[in-house]
Each structure stands twice: as structure tokens, then as C-alpha cells.
Amino acid sequence: MSVVVTETEPLEAYLTVHLSPTINLTDDQFFELCQINRDLRLERTAKGDIIIMPPTGGETSNRNTSIIGQLYNWATREGSGAAFDSSAGFRLPDGSNRSPDAAWVSHERLARLTPEQKKKFIPLCPDFVVELMSPTDTLSAANAKMIEYIANGARLGWLIDPEEEAVYVYRFGASVEELRNLTEISADPELPGFRLGLSDIWKPSI
Predict the structure, then answer these.
(1) What is the tens place of the pLDDT at every residue in 147-158?
(2) If exposure means fewest CB atoms within 10 Å of the residue's CB, which of 3, 70, 135, 176 is most exposed?
């Protein structure tokens, strides 16, 4: 894929509720909206539009469990940061609210946050993000989301397409790298020593 990650692109959505300019929710109001609609997975674009994400199917959920499990185990052993699953919300510098399928943030950056900030949507972009494509996702929409993460400060991003058994690697200022025929992928040098096994991703255990 010959894309250079430099800035955000328009993002497609599953179901988008357009609020701006009529309604502009504050960060606290959006957080409360999510709390009273816990059965919905909500994200918010930089323009203030609300995206309603559908629940995942069994295979996608099983695949994502493998990803977050491997990331969590590495983060616990390595000790320099914390892993997050898809239920975590992050408020990015551009004002959007995103919930990557898996993420990692260094303890150095987390230490700068107040206890109150940690209880709500974390006001930063993760150092590392993973998005796992489901059968209903389009590559163009998933690519736009990954570009948004990188433009907001993520140092490394992986977009995993299990149907094509492909991983797209994102770094700021670099062309997106498309990798195929892998059994594992390394996050070096950004996350030293983290290697994600892909066997359970390509062939889920259900």
C-alpha cells in the first residue's frame, strides 16, 4: 500500500450521528453519554460526530482476545507500560475519541495524568495501537483510522486483516508497509521484545 502517513483523511463510519454545529458535547458530556449507553460502543470524530460501532462476531472477538492477551502478557513482563483492550477510550489531541482494539501506553506518559483523568477517557493517543478488521470493515475506512492515530502521536500501528492474512504497519512519515505470509510480527524497536503470534489470528480457536 503506497500511503505515506502524514495527516488524517476522511473516515467512513458504520452509523454516524451528526451533531455539529447544532450540538457540541464537552468531553465530560460525551463520557456521560457513553456511561448511560453502556450497551453501545461509541466513538467521536474530531468534528464532533458520534460513531456507533456494532458488536463483533464470535471469530473477531476470539481473535482480539488473542491479541490483547499476548500484549498484556508482554507488558506485564516488560514493565515499562500498560496494555488496554477495546473497551478503553482515548481522547486524542485532535479532539476525537477512539477505542482501538488493543493499545499500549508507556508508564512515563501515564504518570503525567491525574487520578481523575485515568478514571475517564484517557487524554492522549496511545504509543501503540492495533485495529483488527472484521468482515464488515472496509480497508479504506480502517486505513483512515490508522492514519488518524499516527497523526495524533502513535509511534506504531498495526492494522490486521485476517481474511487476507495481512498486516499493515504504520509509522509517522513512512509509507504503510504491507506484510503477508507471517506467523508472527515484531514491534521492535518501539516495543522491544514484543512479538505477536498470528496463528490464532489467521485461524481462530472456535
Answers:
(1) 999 999 999 999
(2) 135
Contacts made by residues 191-197, CB under 8 angstroms, sequence distance 24+: 191/74, 191/78, 191/81, 191/104, 191/127, 191/128, 191/156, 192/78, 193/74, 193/78, 194/71, 194/74, 194/78, 196/67, 196/70, 196/71, 196/158, 197/66, 197/70
The total domain count for the chain is: 1
Residue 54 dihedral angles phi and psi, to the nearest 5°: -75, 155
Give residue 35's domain range. 15-202
Q: Is the pLDDT of residue 190 over 70?
A: yes
Please state whether the peptide bond connecting residue 21 to the residue before it is cis, i.e. omega within 30 degrees of 0: yes
Report how far Cα 118 is from the mean position of its chain's Cα atoms.
Answer: 18
pLDDT digits (tens, 9 = 90+) for 46-61: 999 898 887 888 999 9
Residue 122 has pLDDT above 80, yes or no: yes
Minimal CA–CA distance to 64: which of 117, 112, 134? 134
CATH of the domain at 152: 3.90.1570.10
Q: Check the CA dihedral 89-92-97-102 and report its sign.
A: negative
- Asked whether residue 5 is assigned to any structural domain, the reply reads no
